[in-house]
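Ex. 9. Protein: Ribosome maturation factor RimP.
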Amino acid sequence: MPHPLLPDITPVAASTAAAHGFELVEIQILTHLQPMTVQVQIRRTDGSDVSLDDCAGFSGPMGEALESQALLTEAYVLEISSPGIGEQLQSDRDFQTFRSYPVEVLYRDDEGREQRQQGSLLERNADHVQVNVRGRIKRIARASVISVQLISPTG
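Predicted structure tokens for Ribosome maturation factor RimP:
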């Protein structure tokens, strides 16, 4: 269950990220850790890589924004990162950015059984996700796709 403050904190994080040339990818509040942890994932709006210096530089403004809103009343750790390998591709931008990267597509076949297909991502259009599997193009109906996830080159 998402933390009840997430709807209040998300717009603060999104606007702070935008003001510094980033896009908010995800925010999580982990209350099972002591102190609780606020994890903020960002990516650059221009599509270039987020560096460690970017994360460190964004930590200050993000922390100040959270403090100014006084939404968190207990001690917390703020973690800034960028999405890494293993993430699920969701937006059109994700599919463009990771074209030719190794992916695993989870989908339902014609009988409704879950299937997995690994290969290099070619594209996602309105109708299909296309993956290169050892030189052959596999087209999977977009309506059948459950998820597309980046994988390491060795699988």
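Check your answer against this statement. Strands lie at 22-30, 36-44, 76-81, 102-108, 114-124, 128-133, 136-141, 145-150.
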